[in-house]
Amino acid sequence: MKTLTxxxxxxxxxxxxxxxxxxxxxxxHAATPPKARVVVVGGGYGGAIAAKYLRxxxxxxxxxxxxxxxxxxxxxxxxEVLGGERDLASLTFDYRGLTRRGIAVMQDTVIEIDPxxxxxxxxxxxxxxxxxxxxxPGVDYDWAAIEGMSEAVAERIxxxxxxxxxxxxxxxxxxxxxxxxxxxxxxxxxxxxxPPGPYERAAQVAHYFSTHKSKSxxxxxDAKDAFSKQGLFQAGWQEHYGDMIEWVSGAQGGIIEAIDxxxxxLMGSFEEFRGDVINLIPHQKAGALAQTAxxxxxxxxxxxxxxxxxxxxxxxxxxxxxxxxxxxMPKSGYSANSQGKVCAAAVVAAINGDAPPAPSYVxxxxxxxxxxxxxxxxxxxxxxxxxxxxxxGAGGVSPxxxxxxxxxxxxxxxxxxxxxxxSDMFT
Length: 427
Fold this sequence. Notes:
Blueprint: H1 6-22, H2 24-31, E1 36-41, H3 47-57, E2 61-67, E3 71-73, H4 79-82, E4 92-94, H5 96-100, E5 104-107, E6 110-114, E7 119-122, E8 127-129, E9 132-135, E10 139-141, H6 165-176, E11 182-187, H7 197-212, E12 217-222, H8 230-241, E13 245-248, H9 250-254, E14 256-260, E15 265-268, E16 272-274, E17 277-280, E18 284-286, H10 288-292, E19 317-319, H11 333-351, E20 361-370, E21 373-384, E22 387-390, E23 396-397, H12 404-426
Parallel strand pairs: 1-2, 1-9, 2-5, 9-19, 11-12, 11-17, 12-13
Antiparallel strand pairs: 3-4, 6-7, 7-8, 10-18, 14-15, 15-16, 20-21, 21-22, 21-23
Helix pairs in contact: 1-2, 3-11, 7-8
Signal peptide: 1-30
InterPro entries: FAD/NAD-bd_sf, FAD/NAD-binding_dom, FAD/NAD-linked_Rdtase_dimer_sf, FCSD_central, FlavoCytC_S_DH_flav-bd, FlavoCytC_S_DH_flav-bd_sf, SQRD, TAT_signal
Keywords: FAD, Flavoprotein, Signal
């Protein structure tokens, strides 16, 4: 029998630990010093894709993905849960595909980033050393912007702007609402995650109401005087749901200043509104980690070098996705995906002593108004004098005069887009 020495015991322990975290490929990392250590925080549309493309681009880089949840629930298409067209299980993905690629996926909550020491600290006491750090913290909510609103109140007046429990709360409230009730959606000011989201949500809920609560009404109280794909949405609402959906702009009194959650009353700049169900989407800012780590500026968002997404505040930390200031790019899942790939390429280049490659950025956002009725907006962007700008004529919205076949194809494209992008993220 082979003698178990201290050296062989320590080596075997390292291999076992690596196998638990991410499979046999990480065991090689345990025995072979990596070229560099890159930590990615946040396993959504930006972080998951950045981790994958880092690993694909240079297998000699040790990539660790830290995510507080064991599975990811997609916000894109979660409005279909409210409309009764799908369930949350169809939007839920685990990280096994990334571990099979040799990425160490750690379920942990990051509580601190030490940019001087290049260390990320987890809630359980774990410390993650990095040479480069990519942070994709998403958005947080400015609860103080509307008097009477808070994180606790959101358990009764849900925002449903993070898919999962909040989506289920709002769905149950809509199911319990009596026919003839009024559902209020409070849309936030720009910038916020998924600019077309509140208006697609109105359409999806109207789809549910049209077959289950046909006497009910939906009112969107908006802090803005215009919104993404407005003409296409309003035409689609009218075509499928008649006068069920009403939009009140900021200038018409749609700005909400306070809420009384006990009576479900919204206090606007001109009048008060009492709803049977209220979906108040709060004002937004960069995610909590970005705030505590000092990555956000006075705007509440994170300034970055828009070529590489390296923080303008802390060296060797890159910020991607909804939290960053990314020029003309909207805050969307596809934008985060595109930024994750650009950032990964820049980080790999920096580690290997090369200049970052010329970036290219894209975004497409589909919205489903009704079964067989989809619309979209697309954008292609380039870097101009350090800022991400639109390429004129390279994007646009669905044609206003499209026929029924085109609308049905766009709805199918929306589903295909979701399958393709989540496959890219998690396999």
